[in-house]
Structures are given as C-alpha cells and as structure tokens.
Amino acid sequence: MRAYQEEYLGLLAGTAQGPSLEAVERGTALLRENLFPVLDDILDAGDQELADLYEFAEKLMSGQAWDVGLHYRVHLALMDYARHAGRTDMLLRELYKVGMSLYYLENMLVPDQTRLFSTRMRLCFTECASYFGTPAYDELDAESRGYVHRSMGNIALAYHGTDPAATKAKLAALERSIRILSDPDVRAKTPELPWDTYLYKSHQERTSLLASLRRGDAGPETYAQVLESAQIVQERQLAAFRERGVPPDPRWQYAYMAARYHCGAMLLPELLDGLYALSRSRPEDDFSSLGAFAHIGAPAYFMDYAKGLPEPQAMERDVRVERMTRRMRAYLYALPPEENGDLLLFHLRQFLYIYKEDQGAIPFFELLQDFFATRFPAGFVRLWIMGRLARALTGWAVEDCPEKLSGLCGTRGAGEVRERRAELEDFAMRAGRLADAGMIHFFRMETSACRGLFEEEEALLRLHTHLGANLLRGHSSTRDFADIALGHHRAFDERSGYPLDFSARGLAVRPMIALVSVADCLARADRDAVSRSRPALSLDEALEHIQKGAGTVYDPFAAALLTSPDRRELLRRSLPAWKEEALAELRRRASEHQ
Questions:
Q1: What 3-state DSSP class applies to 319?
Q2: Distance between alpha carbon 504 and the CA centroid of its chain, in Å?
Q3: Which of 68, 70, 82, 506 lies in disulfide reach of 104, CB 3.0 to 4.6 Å?
Q4: What string of DSSP letters covers 82-100?
C-alpha cells in the first residue's frame, strides 16, 4: 500500500470513541491530496496502483478499522475501471464488493423500514449473478465463479420482507440460490468452492424471514421454508458443538425456537421461557456476538413476543422484562468503548424499537441517555449542552416575549407562561437532549471515519430526524418531543433544511423547535462535542450565523434572544461549565452501573 493509505488506516485505529477534529482534518487532507485524484482518473491507473487500492479498501473494513463509505467509493471506482477495461474477472469481484458496501450502508437503518440503497444493491448483485448459465461462466476462474454464486444468494439482501410482495421476492431469490448451490453438476464444475458454506449462508438468510412470520402476513409456503432453513442451521450448530466444541450461537437457537412456534410446534410460554433462558446463557463479561445477543437481542425478542400473553400472565412478563432490562443496562455500561460493531449496534437499536416502558419500568428517556453515554459519549455531551442551551433560551424567552411560548405544554397566555417557567425550562432541557435521538443509527459512522462526509452518508444522516421521531412517538416519556426531533433542522421559512415535507405551522411545539434549532447551532461552539456532520464554529461565528439567518433559517424571536451582550458573555462562561457537567454525568452513570 501507499504511505498515505497506511497513515489513514493508522488514524482509523484511534477512533473507538470518535475521531478528533485534528484527525478528521488530517484524514480529509490525505484523501483529497492523494486518493481522490486517483479515483477521478481511475482509467489511467496502473496495475500496482489498482492492487494497492484494492488492498486499502479491504483494510478499511477489517479489525477495528471501519470506513464503509470510503470502502464503497474505492470499489465503485475499481468497478468503473473493470467495466471500461473489459476485465470480467475484476468486474464480477467489484460488483460483489460494491453491493456489499451498499448493504453495510443501508443496514445502519435497520430495524426501521426506511431504505435508500436497495435498488442499487440489487442491481449490482443481479448483474454479477447473471453470468451463471452463460457461455462466459464456463470461462471464469474459480474465484470469479465464487463471486457469481455469492451475489446470487445476496440478491435476497435487497428485499427486506417489509410486506408480502417483498417477502415473496426474497423467497424466490433464495429458493433459486439454494437450488443451484445444491446441484451436484454445478458443484462438480468448481469443486474447490466452499459450496456448503454458501448454502448455509442462504439458509441463514431465509431464516431471517421470521420477521414476516411475526407480522402475520406470510403465507404457508413462507412458514414451511423458514422452518426448514431454521432446522438446517440448528443441526449445523449442534454438529459444530459436538465435533469441535463450538458453542451454539444464541441467535440461531432463538431462530429455531421461533420458527417452531410460528409453525405450531411450540407454545408461546415455551418460547418465552427459552428466550428468558437465552438472556441468561452467557457470562456478564462476554462481549462477543454471542454475549451481545444473549444480553440485548434475546430480551428484545422476549418483549416482542410477550405482547401476545393474556392479561393474567402480564405481571410475570413485566417482572422478567424489568430484570432483563436492568441486566442489559449493566452489560451496556460494562462494554469496552471499542466494542461498537454492526451486530452489537443492531441489537441495541432493536431493543429500543421493541422496548415498552410500561412493561420495563425504566423510562425510555433514560434508556436513550444510557445508549448515548456508553456508545457515543461525544454525542451525549453535545446533547447535554444542547439541553442546557435550550433551557437558557427558554428562560430568556419567558423574560422577553412570553407570549411567543403560549401554547407550549398547554399554557394559555403570557401570564401562565411566566407562572410555569420552571416546567417549560425542564421541557426545553429534555427537548435538547432528545433532539438527535435518531443518531443511534449512525453511532459507528460518526465515530469511525477520519474525513468529511460523502453524499451517501449525508443522505443517511439526514434521516436521523425521521428515525428519531419514530422512536420517540412510541413512549409516554418522549412522545411530546417527537415533532421537535423531526423539525429542528427545517428552516423557519421552510425553504431549506430537512425533512422537506415537514411544517411546524400550527404545532404547539413550534416555539420549542425554534429554540432547539438555535441551540443546535450554538452547541457547535464546543470543539469536542461536534461531529463530522456538524463542523465546529466559534461561539462568535455561531452567533453571527444565527443573526444572519433570522427570518429565514431561524425564527426571529429566537435569534433576538441572543442580541444582548450580557447574555452572550454568559454563554461564553457557561459552555465550559456545561461541558464539565456533562462529563461528570457520564462518570456518575458509569459508577452507578459498575
């Protein structure tokens, strides 16, 4: 590899809790000066340069390094080269790699149903798979044939089973792949390929259609095929345990039990007992994928299935949910900072999407704070500061223009706003701390890369308002803040910002959306609390930006609160204190759960 590639990988190695601004600036400069010119003129690259690019791209997704956006961009350029150069072997490899990059990007959205890259992903895998059965296939070497068959199975990844039509398409893709992978004549052509591994992966993917069974919109064919695959996966897990002592993966133990339940071979109490046992099956210090599923995934599935229990059994359910939730929180705080892999973060997101605070006795607000505190401390600090800023702005609005807050929290008129000042300030504090709840989908993307954002990543990050609002609406402790999370990046005049289809007009929380929007800008003045998606500003720059945007980006009443020199000076003194307060809260939470 080239020296700049080695240096960039070295920068990635130190990003367990997020890169410093200096690392982001250095990484961006390295890529801008050395990599991007090569990618722009990829058709002129020599063989050694192409080999170095491929090695670099692969190391971007190995070990602690994780820069899927750059991995995608490099492989996309290599795919263009292969297509123009007429190199079929290289094209097949790159179609597979680009498709997988898109899968990793889009997988950050799961378990929400929003999708961005499914069509692009499917086109890559389908083009690669289309070589099977053609004269060109017979001319391919073993490695290229491997990419063809892996892509054939991966077409199913582009169908998320979110409705009966998607489930049917996914089943059809997997059925074709399994049939071809099982064909002895196909295997005989390239005996050196790991056919059984490919087949096993296809059965694992078919087992993932359990989500369709849980929704109850799948037909009998889906039930039969999911159960068949779950049994095959279970048998292989047990065989590995007997022959090599490899412990069964709790994920597939759950899948086997759930498939049997949906097909009528297991009763609901049996399934719940099994899930509860799985949640206690791994040591508290097991931070592997097995431990992550046991401590986080299994409780999430338990809560999901337990909704079907009759009322007389609800008390026992709630006791178990509370126990599992408390164990999960302890596990969360025990996790090492560098443990932020895709699978762990998926389990965490899934837990949040399924959790019901009326069953678990822990407010959803607090669980969200735990997730930020343990997996994205810089984000926790930033949101704490945003909460403090929103609280201060609300207090100043009560003093200067209380009529602007009328309607907030059910207030009627300026007099009642003044009387309920403490309540409104507390509401503002929580609003600021929940504004970016949707960022739980992008913890790893925010903390792993040392560079600016690509357009694909910007498109993903803009979804955090929608994702956060979806999460907050489901719980009594957070639903009042959903529209604030949704709208705080939309411009006051609704001519810019996002989401484009959001309007605050007529909403009781409109003044709080305006205040949180201003707080979001001011929070950028703390260099350690910013992110790649929000470049740092000095406090003076932030204040100037707000005043220039008054009437367009920012509500004039909110901008006017910051014209006082005394208040500006108070902010200058308070920001460091609020940061120390946030860091102290992080330490308190960690100590409480040790």
A1: helix
A2: 27
A3: 68
A4: HHHHT-HHHHHHHHHHHHH
Burial 113-138 (b: 16+ CB within 10 A, else e): eeebbbebbbbbbbebbebbeeeebe
- Confirm if 48 and 99 have CB atoms less than 8 A apart: no
pTM above 0.90, yes or no: yes
Helix (H), strand (E) at residue 239: helix 220-244
- Residues contacting residue 26 through CB under 8 Å, at least 6 positions apart: 11, 450
For the stretch 462-494, what's the b/e string if a residue is b when 16 or more beta carbons lie within 10 angstroms of its beta carbon?
A: bbbbbbbbbbbebbebbebbbbbbbbbbbebee
Q: At which residue do the structure tokens 């390239």 appear?
A: 190
Is the peptide bond preceding residue 499 cis, with omega within 30 degrees of 0? yes
- pLDDT surpassing 90 at residue 468: yes
Straight-line distance from the first to the last Cα atom of the chain, in angstroms, rounded to the nearest whole number: 43
* Residue 571 confidence (pLDDT): 97
Distance (Å, rounded) from C-alpha 582 to C-alpha 513?
23
Neighbours of 505 (CB within 10 A): 6
Q: Tell me the pLDDT tens digit for each residue of 154-183.
A: 999 999 766 788 888 999 999 999 999 999
Question: Rounded to 5 degrees, what are φ and ψ at 340?
Answer: -135, 40
State phi, psi for 183 to the nearest 5 degrees. -75, 120
Burial class (CB in 10 A: 0-12, 13-18, 19+), 399: exposed
Query: Among candidates 1, 107, 105, 14, which has minimal Cα distance to 63?
Result: 14
Residue 81 tokens read as 């080269």
pLDDT band at 309; cut points 50, 70, 90? confident
Instruction: Please identify which residue in the block is written with the tokens 């309607």.
Output: 407
CB distance 439 to 468 below 8 Å: yes
CA distance 456 to 101: 11
pLDDT above 90 (res 527): no
In the chain, the domains with their CATH numbers are 372-592 (1.10.3210.10)
| Of 539, 526, 537, nearest in space to 567 by CA | 539
Biggest CA pair distance of the chain: 84
| Nearest partner of 401 among 381, 417, 382, 384, judged by Cα | 417
Amino acid in the structure at residue 372: F
pLDDT in tens, 413-428: 999 999 999 999 999 9
Residue 553's nearest CA partner among 485, 511, 495 is 495
Helix 539-548 vs helix 565-592: angle between axes, to the nearest 10 degrees?
120
Write the DSSP symbol of residue 293: I
The token pair that represents 17 in the structure block: 């809790």
Single-letter code of the amino acid located at 590: A
What angle, rounded to 10 degrees, do the helices at 88-106 and 142-154 form? 30
- Using the structure block, give the residue that is written with the tokens 């006791």: 319
SS3 annotation, 16-74: CCCCCHHHHHHHHHHHHHHHHHHHHCHHHCCHHHHHHHHHHHHHCCCCCCCCHHHHHHH
How much is the pLDDT for 161? 65
